[in-house]
């Protein structure tokens, strides 16, 4: 099914075609979350096999965040300059080769390097899927399609670690990367066979550093953007602290096995996913700014209480799960509304603003996961302290940044606060 779809004259497509497009775009969107979460239950096994520590293994997660940060800024101009499919094909091939490298590596340094390359490859899938929604579907359908893709992003962290836990327990951690390789190959074949050409290459798009940098600088100078994008990124870093620290906390501190860890991760994902879906309901009565204020204050209170309990030695597995669930619920409200407010001032530069916001988000994730990996002794404290710090710093940034916003662009009431990037 090789179809060329015009950007400006979209026609009603057959239901079968619509289904295939949603399936392929959903697969592209799911590749990143699966690559992040599926190998988490294997941290202790990887550490033992590569003769290192689980904390050092978490640097491979930090490396993945580095790759995504770079890829966010790289693929935007490439997808406009060369069309959607060529950069996507190249990215998927890079992802497949890097996944094979992860499976066969014999050192932790090799795993970290291959994870960075794997992330750069997978980022093509994430960025292209968003761009192609705008290309292939009428504007009236975009919100519906993005909702479906957001659901895929939300469900993936529930499925990936659970499957990864069973795969690791039965076949070893190498098998996880063989499965990811297979996913990459299947998605590549699907894009070649069924994904339409949705965008003609724009040869006028400059790939020279100066115009690209100037475009990004124009976005950064907007006070509403830097206030809410940095607030959202720092608040969201609490989620990255949880992802980076949870294998150590649950499998080395509380001594759960890979299968139980997978189910715990799936359960806690319900908090983040559920609150992000309920966000639309609250936006019918409150503005995004009001939701951000309330959620961030709650996030700070829960984070500080969590830290006090950890320092006092009062945390059991049950109490840890309760605190994490509540904290992740707050993140589910804070980040999407902060993202919506940060992008609200833009129309022409929305793509660049989205890319920068994603880079900020992954950059903070990298920093906080590296900080956690520096603590060699298994403990709750690094993860919990990082979560409390991220929430408190985000609230401080929001309070200070608002003073520089002279003209605020509001998010329309009833709009979905979620954003794809």
TrEMBL record:
<feature type="transmembrane region" description="Helical">
    <location>
        <begin position="145"/>
        <end position="167"/>
    </location>
</feature>
<keyword id="KW-1003">Cell membrane</keyword>
<dbReference type="InterPro" id="IPR020846">
    <property type="entry name" value="MFS_dom"/>
</dbReference>
<feature type="transmembrane region" description="Helical">
    <location>
        <begin position="355"/>
        <end position="375"/>
    </location>
</feature>
<feature type="transmembrane region" description="Helical">
    <location>
        <begin position="260"/>
        <end position="282"/>
    </location>
</feature>
<feature type="transmembrane region" description="Helical">
    <location>
        <begin position="112"/>
        <end position="133"/>
    </location>
</feature>
<feature type="transmembrane region" description="Helical">
    <location>
        <begin position="321"/>
        <end position="343"/>
    </location>
</feature>
<dbReference type="InterPro" id="IPR011701">
    <property type="entry name" value="MFS"/>
</dbReference>
<feature type="domain" description="Major facilitator superfamily (MFS) profile">
    <location>
        <begin position="21"/>
        <end position="403"/>
    </location>
</feature>
<keyword id="KW-0813">Transport</keyword>
<feature type="transmembrane region" description="Helical">
    <location>
        <begin position="18"/>
        <end position="36"/>
    </location>
</feature>
<keyword id="KW-0472">Membrane</keyword>
<feature type="transmembrane region" description="Helical">
    <location>
        <begin position="56"/>
        <end position="75"/>
    </location>
</feature>
<feature type="transmembrane region" description="Helical">
    <location>
        <begin position="173"/>
        <end position="195"/>
    </location>
</feature>
<keyword id="KW-1133">Transmembrane helix</keyword>
<feature type="transmembrane region" description="Helical">
    <location>
        <begin position="294"/>
        <end position="315"/>
    </location>
</feature>
<dbReference type="InterPro" id="IPR004812">
    <property type="entry name" value="Efflux_drug-R_Bcr/CmlA"/>
</dbReference>
<feature type="transmembrane region" description="Helical">
    <location>
        <begin position="225"/>
        <end position="248"/>
    </location>
</feature>
<dbReference type="InterPro" id="IPR036259">
    <property type="entry name" value="MFS_trans_sf"/>
</dbReference>
<feature type="transmembrane region" description="Helical">
    <location>
        <begin position="381"/>
        <end position="400"/>
    </location>
</feature>
<feature type="transmembrane region" description="Helical">
    <location>
        <begin position="87"/>
        <end position="106"/>
    </location>
</feature>
<protein>
    <submittedName>
        <fullName>Bicyclomycin resistance protein</fullName>
    </submittedName>
</protein>
<comment type="similarity">
    <text>Belongs to the major facilitator superfamily. Bcr/CmlA family.</text>
</comment>
<dbReference type="Pfam" id="PF07690">
    <property type="entry name" value="MFS_1"/>
</dbReference>
<keyword id="KW-0812">Transmembrane</keyword>
